[in-house]
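[Solved] Which block belongs to which protein?

Original post:
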Amino acid sequence: MIKTLALYAWARVRLGHHSCNVAGLLLGLFSEELRVTANRLGVNAESLYIAAAIAALLHDAGKASPGYQERVATRPVFTCHELVAGKLVLDTSIRILEGRIEDKYAQLLAGLAGLAALRHHHGMRSIDFCRREAKKGRVHGLSREDFALLASEFEETCPPSRPIIMILNSLDNDYDPLGSLIALSKHVENLTRIVGFREEGLAFYASQLTGFLSLADYLAASILDGRRKDNEHPRGYAATALKELSWRLMTGIEGKVQLTDLLKGIAMDGIKFMKRLLSRL
């Protein structure tokens, strides 16, 4: 593949590195919870792991748009980039899961993964807000050329994502924000009929996966990406989340293990797990 421009999730933070870290933390921290969820959904755990990995790897895919990238070095603003990501995660998950599991469950897991990507910034802004911003032309979509750039970024920075890279290189249609949101919404509406779940049940499982993804994203951004100089002493939501995860019990009272090193280790274990999963596709 011809080397192209690097893509960034934040100033000086490569998009592929960040996404790979998020996937690693998601699988490294929550594999047991995902296994239990898969059992409740009636699917094999490996399929849910794969859907979760796709959601994590592509949750920031919308940031690849030139409309966002051109300002990332000086004033990074990625208004509602998740609108496109939700549909891309949905489509990618369906293509990978089809034929591996019963079709209705492939549709279910793809829908849950798409919703998680769509709502991973639920604490920052609502879907209604993003819909309004998109109608005003303030949300950027992705073109075929953007997908090729994204594939190149992942190939350089996150080699375990090879199956996703192949799909990105095969996409030949544009994704616009409003159209992507509408398509994902229609898919989710149909799930109650396809799978037979009540809306409350779908909302529960979607919220659960969204929570896992949001937390992995936040920890990767605040601790592993190096956006702050003092990332050994997290503040705000990161501090609360880590307390709930009881990370101090794992590091020891003396604090002999640095927080960054601990999370790097968890992320690396998760990435290795993801590599084994995706290498079998």
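(Second protein starts here: sequence line, then its structure tokens.)
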Amino acid sequence: MRILSIHADCMWYRVTKKTKLAEPVDILEDRMEECVVLFCCVEKLDEKNPEHVVESAKKNVTARLAKLKVSQVMIYPYAHLTSTLGSPECALGILKGLENSLRAESISVRRAPFGWYKEFEIRGKGHPLADLSMTICPYEGTECDFTCPYCHHPVRESDMNPVCPGSGSCLRKDDTFGRRPGTDPVEKPVASTALLVPGCPEVPVQQALALHISHNLRKRGTALTVTGNPAVLNLLKVSDPEKLYLPETIVLEKCIEELVEKKRDCKLCIVFAHSDAGISYAATMRHLLPASRLIVIIFGKDPEALAALIDFPCEKIVDKAVHNPMQLRKKINEVFGWVV
């Protein structure tokens, strides 16, 4: 389940036209002030464990409400947050379940109708914590067998369907997702071109993980450029004197200049952030590369607080990593679908 949460002065909507999926409604127009608006999108994967999705969403939302000191919520169905929509029946059930579970916590809840075209107006408060994206995983707290290399969702082998008629499953438990038994994995490039943006080299894990990402992108055919301030670039160069892992490097100021002048472009941008300066770098890249996939790796002593500062579209990898890179490396591999 995907949720875009906005702390708002007010939210207003009015239904305009029904679809064939429209639920019966009595209220055609509604308004709520001093509230948190939840733009909610139920995904196909949520059908595996809808009760867990509702419970996890409730916990995440109530924690956010407590932090913002807000007791009013408007749930707004919004199908445009994913490319893998769940069934209408499951989606409506989960949205109603979230509505009821929040109401049971003494929260004032209103829900915009499902399956209707609506016009709406929202006035966000615009403070650093006003906007927040959430991803609710139906497998949270359990072990999964694979990560989908296309959508990066966790996958259990028991949930997969055979694709070879008459041959049963094409996978064994000791095989990698996407590999036929007895063969080596074939991994497609994550992107044809990529830009890697490490921040100031103050936190030890960044150097190792930057080389790890560079190595894995390049060996899968991605044309990669690494950009940063002179200090971080020199540190990486000293760590890789024979240039086994590092590709082209360019000072960040020059790189931004080329991006502004449209002399440089990329399909994927990865930014390291262990301070608010790193978040600013990521925001700059989002502005200069609006059509590119942007991944922000947030780490250090208080990564959750940093992640809360992000108010622009991106994918986030968050871990409290300072000296030990192993857990963050695992999360990075899962996002990219790398088998290493």
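Accepted answer:
You had them paired correctly. Confirming on the second one: The chain has a mean pLDDT of 86.
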